[in-house]
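Colleagues,

Please find the record for the three-part complex below.
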Amino acid sequence: MAEPMLSVSGLTKTITLHILHGAEVHPLRDISFDLAPGEFLAIAGPSGAGKSSLLKCLNRTYLATAGTAKYVTRAGEVVDLFSAPERDVIALRRNEITYVSQFLKAPPRVPAVDVVASVLTRRGVDLEVARERASAMLERLGMGPSLQSSYPALFSGGEQQRVNVAKAFVDPPRLLLLDEPTSALDVENRDRVIDLLREAQAGGTAVIAIFHDRELIRRLADRVLVLADGIAREVAPDEDFGIADDSLADELMEVSR
Amino acid sequence: MVSATGVRALIDERGAEFEGYTFGFLDDMAKREIRRTILKAVAIPGHQVPFGSREMPIARGWGTGGLQITLACVGADDTIKVIDQGDDASVNAVNLRRLIAKTTGARETLTTGEATLIQTRHRIPEERMTAAQMLILQVPIPEPLRHVERSVAAARAMHAEADYARMWLALYEDVVRNGEVTAGAGYPVMVNGRFVMAPSPIPRWDIPKLNQAETLFLFGAGREKRIYAVPPFTNVQPLEFDDYPFEIEAFPNMSCRRCGATDSYLVTSPQADGSTLSVCSDTSYCDDVLAGRKVENQW
Amino acid sequence: MVEPLLRVRDLTKIYSGKGHRIVACEDVSFDVYPGEVLGIVGESGSGKSTVLQCLFQDVVPTSGAAYLTSFEGGERNMFEADRRERRELRTHRMSMVYQNPRQGLNLMVTAGGNVAERLLAADWRRVSDIRAKASDYLVRTEVPIERMDDFPAFFSGGMQQRVQIAKALANNPELVLLDELTTGLDVSVQAGVLDLVRDIQSKYGVTAIIVSHDLGVIRLLADRTLVMKDGHVVESGLTDQILEDPQHPYTQLLVNCVTN
C-alpha cells in the first residue's frame, strides 16, 4: 500500500447539549484508519451510527473532541485537519478537499450553473471557462440548459443531488468526502455518478463515501469501514457486515433527523 | 432740524473731538495685538488667525475687520485709499477714509498709484500694486468651508489636516448640477499649496492678482474675529478640476461707457430706456484712463 | 504563509461615568486574512457593533490594539494614530457601511457625489474620470445610472444601502466594515442587498468584517465567525462549524432558535 494521504487516529466526538442540561452524545469513539491516494473507503452503518459525523469532522464542520487526522497536502506538508488553523482549512477546502453533503446547500438565487462554476472560480478559473466546464458537467448528469439556468432551491431532490455531485466532480479534489451522493438518483444517473467516481479515482482522488447501497459498495469500494454506536470495524467490500441493504426506513430516519 | 451747513459743522466739530483719542483710534495694546496677529498670519499664509476684534465706531459687518488692520498698520505719513466695490465715493468708503485720516493724520487719496495703504471691499484695484503698497481686504465670512461644514471645530480640523475633500465635493456637485463651478464672488483658492482660503467676495477677475503678487494682502473679518494674509510672492491657485479649468469673467465686445476701457472689470446696470450701461468697477482706473494716464494694469 | 491583513488584540471599550460602568466589549481578539469575510454575530448589546466602531475609529477604545499590515508595516497600533493618520486610514484603507444610511451618506449630496467624495479625498481631479469611476461603482451595486445625479434622500432604503456600498467600495479599500447592513430593510429588499454583497465579494475578493444579529446573513457571507455575548467573544470558528457544531451554550441556543 502506498504512503497514506490521510491517517486518522483516535477520532472521538462528543457533543454536549447545553440546552438539554448538558446531556452528552457520543457519535464517534476512537476511530482510526488510513487512506492512500486514489483509494476508495466506503462508510457503512445504521442511521445514527456516526457516519455523517465522521465526514463532518474531517471537513471541520464538526470539531473533533480527540484524535488527529494527519493529511499530506499536495505540497507535501502534513496538516492535522482537526487542529489546523481555520485559515488553512479554508484553503484546503478551496483547493484539495471537497465535502458533498447529502442535501444541497446552495446559496439562494444563484443559477445551478453558477453554483457549480463557483467551485472553479474560487480556484482562480476565469468565470467564462468555469461556466463552460460547469455546464458540460451538468449536461453529463442529464441537466439541460433550462435547468442549469434555474435556481436549485426550486429543484427536486434528485436534481439538487446532481448539482451537488457536479460540484464534486467538475474539478475533482485530492480528497472527496461524499455523504450518500446517490440516495435520490435513478439508476441511470447513479451509473453516471459511478463513472465519474471511477474517473476521479483514476486521476488520483481519494474518496471517503457514505453508502447505504451494498451493491454500490461492492462495485466501488476498496475498503469498508462499518460504524455502529460510534465504534468502527473494517471489513472487505464483499463481506457481509450485517447491515440491511439500502433501507428505506434508514433514509427516512436520516431525512427527519 | 439741522441745516446742511450745520451737518458740516457738526462733522468738523466731531473731527476736532478725535484729538482726544489715541493715534489711530485703537489703544496701543489693541494695535500691538493686531500686529502680532498679522505677523502670525503672514508666517502661515492662508491660515485664519483669531484676534480680539474690538468695538469700533461703525457696525460689525461694515468693514470693522479691515478697519482694525488699517488702524493698526497706518502711520502719519501714509497715504490711504478706501474702496467699496471699486468705488471710492460710496458713503461707507468715504466715512472709513475720513475716520482713518482724522485719527492718524494720514493723507487721503482716490488714486491707486498714490496710496501706500488701501482698504477695500469686494475688489482688488486694476492697477498693478507694488511692494511698497499694502492691500487690506474686508471679509464677511473668512471660513471657506462654512457652507460645506457647519461645525467650526470640524472645519478647523479639516484645515489642520488639509482635508479638503468636502470642499472639492461641493465643487463637483456644482459642476454636476450647473455644468461649471458657479462660484462668482469669493472663489475658493489654495494658498501656498496648504490652506484653502476665502479670498473675500472679490470677482473671479481679481483672483489671479493674488498669485505671486509683489504686494502684501491682509484679510480682516471683524465680526468673525479672524485675520489672515497672503504675503508677497505666494502661490495662490483657484481650486479647479483638470477638465473644468478656472476662468475669469469675460466681457465680450464690451467697453466702459465712460472711459472706453476694454481691459477692466465692468459693472453693468439697466437704464430707464431699457438699454444697459457698462462702466469700470474701479473708479480710480476709470479716471486714469479718462485722463489719458498710462496705467500698468497687467497683474 | 499569508499574513493577516488585520490583527485585533484585547480590544476593550468601557463606558464609565458617575456610578456606572458599562462594558461594551472586552478583550476581543481576532485576525482577518486577505480576501476573507469575518462574521461577528450576537444579540443587540453584545458589543459587536462597538468592535466595528472602534476599528473605524468612530469610537475611541478604552484599551487594546489593532494592527493593519499596510499601516506602518503592521508594527504600530492603529489606535495610536494621530488625527491625520486616522483620516488616511478611514479614507484610503478602510470603509464602513452603516446600518443607517444617514450615517454613511450625505443625503443632500448626489448619489454620484457620495461615491466621488472618497475619490476626491484621494486627489482625483478630473470630473470626467471621477464620474466614470463613480458610475462604475454604482453599476456594480446595481444603482440605476440615471439616478446618479439624484439625491439619496429621495431613494428607497434598499437603494440608499446600495449607494452606501458603492461608496464603501470606492477607492478600493483594503477592508470593508459592514454593520447590520440589511437590518433596516424589508425582507424582499434584504435578499437583493445580500446577493449583491455576496456577488461583489466573489468577484472582487473584498476583505470584510460583517456584523449582524442574523445568522442567515452570517451563513451566506462569512467564511469565519465570532460569536459575541455581553461584550465578550464566546466562540469562534468556521461559519459552518459554528452553525452545525456550536460549542458554547449561548451559541447552541442561538443556532437552535434559528433552526427551529
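Chain B is about 30% helix and 15% strand.

Comments are welcome before we finalize the supplementary table.
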